[in-house]
Design a protein that fits this description.
- The structure is a homopentamer of 378-residue chains.
- With 378 residues, chain A is an alpha+beta fold.
- Chain A is 52% helix and 13% strand.
- Chain A has 10 helices and 7 strands.
- In chain A, strand 5 (121-129) and strand 6 (137-145) form a beta hairpin.
- In chain A, helix 7 packs parallel to helix 9 and helix 9 runs antiparallel to helix 10 (345-367).
- The longest helix of chain A has 66 residues, at 258-323.
- Chains D and E meet through helix 5, helix 6, helix 7 and helix 9 of D and helix 1, helix 4, helix 8, helix 9 and helix 10 of E.
């Protein structure tokens, strides 16, 4: 295979999209070791404790100080955005008694969304979409215990603003309920974040559909391919959330209370809706490729019809004209092109040409080649 | 990606069809809050109470007055058409003890059909088709309790006329049985409402089939694409009803009595039939695209055959004619085109041309290019 | 969408085939009411009672008289062919204690094959094929009780002749066993009836295969589409029988005895074989469409090769000939076409033409365009 | 549909392959009757009894004599090759207490592989491949009891030679174990028999792959279609073996001992491997059809490029040449083709032609049409 | 079928890849016999025993000596690389009490990955990828007991270096845990070994994607076919690992401890990720074939447009030119081409030609044929 891409390197963002799914640990690394990935962001720790009585935001100093906050209020939410500090994560793991493998999954940010049960806590992985970029997702991992929720994000910036606002202003149900409800609220916010992305894809698809149906361009197929590929990657990101939410609903773990399961059911419906939309878009896009191919064929038909009509009419006429352009010596024999000397030779030949052209036009008209849309005879 | 649609906005109804599936709440909204959607209709409340003894229609005044009607007769049916009044829905929710999430689903009218069990009542979502429009569906949600049925519709106008008439005239089984039978009757009416829609698609498909098979047009592929897309959306609307009805049949809830389950089984069969028809139509439509592409190719073959026959016959003849149109000086040398001076030069050349034309025609005839339908030799 | 079918109405039988799958009751009809369909046949009632001792055929007078026959012999088989008389069916329903919904399904003859259990009897729906028509099926419904079998057919004429003959002549096992064995024998006869239909499709498919592979015609794609569509409808008719027979085998109903289940297992194998054959035929037919499209493309290649060879050889030659047909005044300048006056000008030009033609032929031969089958070079 | 096959009958072996899957009993035959099929082979009976002590081969005289052999040694293996003698089969059935339906399945040799349990014995059907023919399979049925194995083959000749040899020479485990191990050994031999067949298909596929990729011919599509069809039939033959072996492993029948189940698990793995290979071959073959279609299109492109280059260069040149072949009377007016009389008229025209040809060649070179493989510009 | 490959033998590595999946024992071989395959490598035995206290490497002398090492330390790992010595394997089997069938599977190196339970030990088969070759896999089989792990590899060289290093240096968890953890570590290393292979395929796919989208070549389809086939083979290799790891997690065998199951869950996630990536790559590759076919068609359109524009403009002009090249005798009649003698005859004809050419260009411009990308009118 040759490397034609030597001059034009493949655009960076595409390369990342395909290989962003690979596992990042070197084969043979010891399972359960914590080594931050190259390019990980520096951590920002946010600590909120709240309960029916109100919420307090704490400043992060040391992990030991953190330990004392535990149990003060019904819910302690520690959010770590940026995963560059393996020591911090390891200390948090020790403080809350977390499993080494789960901590490794926190750092190796290419996990599929999943739920894992450990003694006293659950480990949940989800993927968050960035609204500004399209199919790029960021790993969100959290440890849900009886009175704490420990969340890890790959980067700074998230879609949890409204949830934080609700905790701060003590609006909604979130302050009255435990960390399981908070966990649900975050997952719900992440899954809702996929809808605007899909909506944008829907608009792209509609624009392409209008183009392909009304005036196809050769670039449409590439755009459709691009769209299909991104929907494929999006589907792969969305699909395991369904299973993950379902596991949260069904597993008999005391960490999640019955009333939160009702809310998770709602969340589950949303993941199914997401998948439904992605699948529908993919099927429409696939169908559009067929429509495009068929449009291109129809166009070729039309081009060939024009060529055939023109060539078929003029080639015989040209033959007749060049017939009488031959230089046979009319003087040498009465058989040599006597027509050239006829009194009405020229008008007669023109008439013959007119009859041939008319006959061919009538033939094409009967074949339906002169009509616009129709492809068949009569 | 360029925006060619700047001048011609995509037709409004299509845009709606694709993006009508998105979730309507803003990401980050508090789960369980009731904010009516933009464009929701003003509610019209219809109240009927009935039992074996007959039916009474009540005028709606206040929700408190409604509370007193409860229990007077075996069945109290409250129907709210139009979801613009969140207060009314919230008060009804309080009166009947309904879950906040279910009420939110009533208002956010893009739910998939589903069944949810709550203490003392079931929450059912279905989608109703409008006969005048094609794949547009309206959300129907209902709360089914021991002695009441609370139904919510997105808009005024429905397909429940015959059921109302049966209650009014005390015909059929409906007056003798409880609210579960009423609920079944409404679901059955909604599912039956899909059949006329499908019948119309069946007619469109047959017309397209006749066209494609007998005289294909280039517009057919677009029509087929349109049809396939609408069937896709219809399938997505119909599919979850199967699961929903199945859940009603299987779940051990005292709200639904055993004899109603027998009727629901019938309803379940209808949803399977619907899916069967939709799938069959989709497969036929997909097959038609192939037939069309193949027709277009066959047409191109025919066009090229005409061009090839004409060009192949006349190009050699034209060459011979122009050969003798050359102006070599016959006087300068006896080798210079002596044919021009032959006694039978001209007839001889004409004869040669006739032989060549005849030979080529025979060759084409043997190749089968002069026959009509046959694509192959002999 | 325009209506090109205004002059040529679509052939009646095709229209029927597609829309014959729609449900026949008007939406909103009261479930469980009995209104015979338009075009239902007048009923013919045949009554046979038999047991190990022999069989008696009874004349049908009234339903009450029928009631007295019950229990006289181990098996009472009442067959009603033609469903126009709703009163008769209702009375039979009352006599045998049948459910209203089941009776409605008897009359609405577009049910999918299914099994429904009721107290004291089973309700079974199957679809019978007419050997003279191809995919048209007729509904067969039956009620199987402890000592009776009540069968309903849509039309007169069936494939039960051999079973009747066996009862009359007391041959085979049928007289020694109960109504469940009779029911099995009828279902077996119906399922066996699909095999000759499939065999005919197999022959059509083989004929098409020979044509497409040996000498494709443009009509083949339409025939293949027709075949695929009919196999699709056939599959839809056959598929639910599998589930139906399986339900009969597995359901723990005392109406069906263990030894009959052994026979039903055999019947189940046949339904699987049917599905196997239908699926195989469909896959072969789909593959043939590809072969056809590829044949048509190969044909186009061949046509274009002929055109290209002829045009490519003669267009340069024609150019040379017309070059020397130019009328530059050789007298005006020694630079003006001195070749015309050369002694060997004409033979030289002919030789040049021959070399060009030979070179091009050699080029085409090397490209492999002069060989027959090969599409590639060398 | 016309019958183009009137002159050339479809090759016999293909017809047989497609319709060989139909059921052979006439519809309406009494279930459980034994009528040998037309063309059944005369039976050859082989009797071997063996145990840890050694094996004895018995001559077959009568069925009664056979009865006495039962129980003499741990295993009695009776093999009947050829199913023409219904009486013999019926008598064997009576002797061993076999079910009539199973005996019918022995004779009607189009059964799918399956396992059926009866009191005291199991009935197993498998299909054996003939190495000399390709997808033709022969039915093997056997009855496995506590101390006997009764096997029926459609024809003489099988792949059991090595098993027989092991019994005769008391090699391997077979003599120490019961009839269940013998049964396993036979099934294993049959399933192993499919591997060489697949290997041959693999070779055909590779040859086709080399051809299609390196120098496609139009016959390749037909060969691929043939291959795909045979793999389809092979899959249908192999597929139910998986289920059959699985049933043998899982069913709690005392006839099969635990240690034999371990061996059957191995056999099960082989059936899965078979299916894997068949599916892989089918997918590769399907992909090859696409490669072929695309090769043919690329070829057409190349042909059209040659035609277009030649025609596009010479048509304008020819036009210029014929322009100066016009006979306008230069004497009549100074405006009439004064170029003809220019001193450098002819060289000038030739130069113009050269410039045009060069410009067009440069244009084609820039479009990338003069390169070999590249389809696009630059 | 002809053998065009006589001169050019199919490249060896491809043939191997397709037929490398066939079973290697001759049909009819005695199950459970140990005959090394032709070409098996000579065995190299490595023995390590370790525990929390440290690890010892032993030299292999005889199998009896080996027996004495058993139980000395918590874990005894015996690795046999190369399967040519059947006696050695048989003796090891006797020493550890292994089942004959499992030993046969060790030697017949075309097993699918699987888990089999035996009394006191488990038998596990996996497939290891060689990083230097692409889809070639090597069989890894192991017997996992309470205090030993017996591993067999097809060839020397593996990806277990890091695991061995960890044992030697007593790093990580491996020395503190039993043979089940060692077994997990080996499986994990093998599964991680697939990721670099996939990454390379991802790069190939991206390069092809760039080529097809930016400047398609006819060789791309073949490369895509090759890629799809290798992904197909890779999928077949990877797929059963999922099931195998799942079986290890779920089966209630005391040989695998609960804490190891947690690690296996991680391993399971990796197999799912592998499958996800393979499937995504396959779908993208399939989509690319469509993009390529459509590019080729668009290219053909462009070629035909150039031909049609040139031919359609010059053929009529050429006709006019040859019209006035006719030699009608203007002297014989005033009707014979009087234009030739007009004062402005020649300029007039040139003007007519200009008008025709301009009109046709305008027509093509309106059709959108002169624009670059657009395929449709306006």
């Amino acid at each position: 295979m040759d490397q034609p891409a030597s001059k034009k390197p493949p655009p960076k963002h595409r390369r990342k999209r395909l290989s962003g799914i690979e596992r990042s640990t070197a084969p043979g690394a010891i399972p359960g070791t914590l080594e931050p990935l190259a390019g990980a962001h520096a951590p920002v720790v946010t600590i909120v404790s709240y309960g029916p009585g109100g919420s307090t935001e704490h400043k992060f100093t040391t992990v030991e100080a953190l330990g004392k906050l535990r149990g003060l209020k019904p819910v302690l939410w520690i959010d770590v955005s940026g995963l560059a500090d393996a020591t911090l994560i390891a200390e948090l793991g020790k403080l809350f008694g977390l499993h080494a493998l789960a901590l490794e999954d926190v750092i190796n940010v290419h996990q599929r969304p999943k739920v894992e049960e450990y003694k006293g806590h659950m480990f949940i992985v989800a993927r968050m979409v960035h609204s500004e970029e399209r199919t790029e997702t960021e790993q969100f991992s959290c440890f849900l215990g009886r009175n704490f929720l420990l969340t890890f994000q790959e980067r700074h910036g998230d879609c949890f603003g409204p949830v934080r606002e609700r905790i701060r202003s003590a609006r909604g149900r979130v302050c009255k309920l435990g960390p399981d409800y908070l966990c649900y609220a975050l997952i719900d916010a992440m899954i809702d974040g996929y809808f605007p992305v899909l909506e944008r894809y829907g608009e792209v698809l509609e624009r392409l559909e209008d183009q392909v149906v009304e005036s196809p361009r050769s670039s449409n197929v590439r755009d459709l391919h691009e769209l299909k590929r991104e929907l494929l990657l999006l589907r792969r990101a969305v699909w395991p959330h369904r299973e993950m939410v379902n596991a949260l609903i069904r597993e008999e773990n005391p960490v999640i209370e019955a009333q939160t399961r009702v809310y998770l059911r709602d969340c589950y419906d949303h993941t199914i809706q997401l998948m439904d939309i992605v699948e529908t878009y993919r099927e429409i896009a696939s169908g559009l490729v067929d429509v495009h191919i068929s449009s291109v064929s129809a166009r070729l038909n039309e081009i060939m019809k024009v060529l055939t009509i023109i060539a078929t009419i003029f080639i015989p006429l040209g033959f007749i004209a060049s017939l009488y352009g031959m230089n046979f010596d009319t003087a040498a024999s009465p058989w040599n092109m006597p027509e050239l000397k006829w009194y009405l030779g020229y008008p007669f030949v023109l008439a013959v040409m007119g009859v041939i052209a008319g006959g061919l036009l009538w033939y094409f008209w009967r074949k339906g080649w002169l009509g616009g849309d129709r492809l068949g005879p009569r």
